[in-house]
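Please study the protein below:
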Amino acid sequence: MNIQKSFQAQGTLGKLYLVATPIGNLEDMTFRAIRTLKEVHWIAAEDTRQTRKLLTHYEIPTRLVSYHEHNKQASGNELIRLLIEGQSVALVSDAGLPAISDPGFDLVKLAITNHITVIPIPGANAALSALIVSGLPTDRFSFIGFLPRDKKSIHQELERLTAREETLIFYESPHRVLKTLAIMNEVWGSRDIVLARELTKRYEEMARGTIAEIRLFIEEHPPLGEYCLVVGGYVKTQAQTEAEQAWWKALAVTEHVEHYKRNGMDHKDAIKKAAVDRGVPKREVYNELIDPDK
């Protein structure tokens, strides 16, 4: 068990800050992010060339070190050593929140294992930015990130997600987006989708429509920039909903309760769930189990 109190003194260990950077528009950098980057001892960056432009713009003189997928083991261990010595480190990605679809997760996990405080410095995020302007439901959603590279694996992943009813969010590169849309259309058929690109930048664009419509749009307008795909979840037909609600009607009360127990519920919860299905007090179900001939 690990309890972190972020802003209370925790011995001599340094702190790891996860600092959000702009996803396109430099004005999305927060005051807190700038202050943090100026105050820490080190900034660990996915691409030091990209991050140096940001630091130059905001006149941040902090020392910069490289941390990316290909050096994360060696660099990660060195960063942990610095943190254990009491030096503070800010982790940044090329754009947006670190540790999402990048190796920052591994450093966070390593820091927690070494009892180092990990503090988020929130800011811009492409997935959530695309979601809130999509016009699709935002009450429940899942971030999937990048799909696998080969066609068979993409098929398998999309088939696994077919019955998910929440809004789904994907990242995709310009040279793969058309192929991904084609497979989505093949596996899922007609669903609402939003393609967001160049978020926060001058040529920000949202294309809203069905998967087939957006696929045609991309064929006519060659893809440019990184894409965020926001896809509507699975919607049951009225007939499917009615069939699911009525599945238990041919069962006796005892069989109804046993069904839920076989699926992992304890006896009490199984009675409660069967009562909800049948629209009766749970006492009535309980009495039926005691004396089914009554």
